[in-house]
Amino acid sequence: MTSMTYDYQCVRVGRNGAHHFFGYYNKSNWDYSGRKLLAQEAPWRDKFLTPDLAVKVGYFDMEKNDGAFHEVGETRTWNWQMGSQLQWLGGSDGNKILYNIRTDIDTTIYPYFGSEIRDVHTGESKVLPMPVYVAAPNGKWALSVDYRRLYKTHQTIGYPCSQIPPAPSLCPAQDGIWNMDLETGEATLAASYQQLAAFHPRESMKKAIHWVSHIEVNPSSNRVLFLHRWTERVLDETCFLHRLITMAPDGSNMRLLECSDHPLPQLAADFDSSAVGTFDYEKSEWQISHPLWRQDGEIIVWGPHAGRIHYHLYEDIDNGKVSVIGDGVLTENGHMTFSPVNPRWLLSDTYPDSTTNERILFLYDMDTGKRHDLGSFYADPSLSKENRCDLHPRWRPDGLAVCIDSMHEGDRDMYAIDVSFLVSPEGAAPNEKGPSKGLFRG
User: Fold this and answer.
1) Domain enclosing residue 256, as ranges
2) End-to-end CA distance of the chain
3) What's the mean pLDDT in 111-122?
């Protein structure tokens, strides 16, 4: 099995002088037609987040391809890593989007935070009483967590809030993962932190603070996966401990798929957490990260299993069948998703090389075991953990193109890449050659 690279055009989407980004890899920012491409627009390429900072919410028209940003809203509830959880709302007419907002309401479960559904054509909108983490593909419900808690435990994916300084308890019974009806706004607690701490408990949980992340709903909207994390030292990510869990949307039928509990010498009083590199956490041999549904009942994840860390495919979550993907080829953590139309193709990336600061975007062929490198993108090493710009590759719904966030040309912007030459049945891969370092470096 070998690695290959192809030379092709990588098209920058925004061309109006502002900075544009989408955020995470777990949902497509293209609409069903492949014409509208969602984004957030900011006047800065990087900035420390405060509650007053606002970004515009809107889309690009990929058919016109004129670089014009069409604004439909604004939000002060976002971060550089996940944006505002902006997403197309499934089960609708294809014109509705969902994103998180800040409110003046202090009587909700999570005061001063909510979400908004907006029609990009009519401008009609509806405000919901809770922020969302992910909406079910059927568009009927969404899952929510306390982003103030995330700001305390995992700042990169949380939201700052000056009105109510976050001071969360370790594993409360009244908070956890909430299920919110997107029609009525009514919410029920599906799984509390107290329940999670009591579910196959570990000794390391007793003095730790608990939270959840990477919550994902399967295509049929009847099963949820998430990472349960806990730590005694929130400022050092190498002290995070992880479990991969699935459950029904109401919290029932909870199952533990993987646990990476391990000794933590970093908890020693003389450990220097300032010596931990920006991406050391992502390269940990104990890391469980970036889980995503391949299809109902199948989960792809980077993490340890049976004493070895790999891309692992949990092929049958009910019976525990697990297989290694790309043994010897896919050797480091990345943001992985399968093509929405052909699960033969796995899209992913790498974190920046510690010497060159380059990271690779690639497709992996499940049939042949070949990794096809699409390009090498420079990452500014001066950016912090919180304001860095990961590629976070995302598929177009037809599986013929992908979109990334990148700063390799200096600005923070999105890039569209045509991969039809590789993934189309009749397509032939042109200019096949060895890896090309710096192919898209500005």
Assistant:
1) 77-334
2) 31
3) 95
Verify that 94 and 191 share a domain, yes or no: yes
Phi, psi of 74 (to 5 degrees): -150, 150
Asked, for residue 340, whether it belongs to a domain, the answer is no
pLDDT value of position 275 = 64
Helix (H, G, I), strand (E, B) or coil at 197: helix
Does residue 399 share a domain with residue 440?
Answer: yes
Give dist(CA 237, CA 201) in Å, integer. Answer: 21
Distance, CA of 111 to CA of 102 (rounded, Å): 9
CA dist list (Å): 64 to 20, 72, 395, 401: 18, 18, 20, 17
Over the stretch 275-290, which tens digit does the pLDDT of each residue have? 666 556 555 666 899 9
Alpha helices in 396-440 (DSSP H): 420-423
CB of 295 closer than 8 Å to CB of 238: no
Neighbouring residues of 317: CB distance < 8 A, sequence distance ≥ 6: 223, 246, 255, 257, 297, 298, 299
- Count of structural domains, the chain: 2
CATH number at residue 304: 2.120.10
Q: Are strands 96-102 and 87-88 parallel, antiparallel or unpaired?
A: antiparallel
DSSP string, 101-128: EE-S--SSSSTTEEEEEEETTT--EEEE
Mean pLDDT of 329-355: 95
Q: Which pLDDT tens digit goes with each residue over 145-165?
A: 999 999 999 999 999 988 776
On the CB side of 179, how many CA atoms lie within 13 Å of its CA?
20
pTM of the model: 0.91
Rounded Cα–Cα distance for residues 19 and 44 (Å): 6
Total residue length of the chain: 442
- The alpha-helical segments, DSSP class H, found in 67-175 are 147-153
Query: Of the candidates 308, 334, 360, which is a domain's last residue?
Result: 334
Domain final position from 290, 305, 334: 334
Tokens matching residue 277: 């590199």
Same domain, yes or no: 313 and 386: no
Least confident of 110-119, 127-136, 277-286: 277-286
Look at residues 337, 312, 313 and name the one whose alpha carbon lies nearest to residue 392.
Answer: 337
Instruction: Name the phi and psi angles at 198, rounded to 5.
Output: -90, -5
Share above pLDDT 70 across residues of the chain, in percent, rounded to a whole number = 88
Indicate the residue type of 141: W
Residue 70 forms part of a structural domain: no
Of 93, 75, 85, 98, nearest to 182 by C-alpha is: 98
Q: Domain for residue 434, yes or no?
A: yes
Cβ pair 323, 277 in contact under 8 A: no
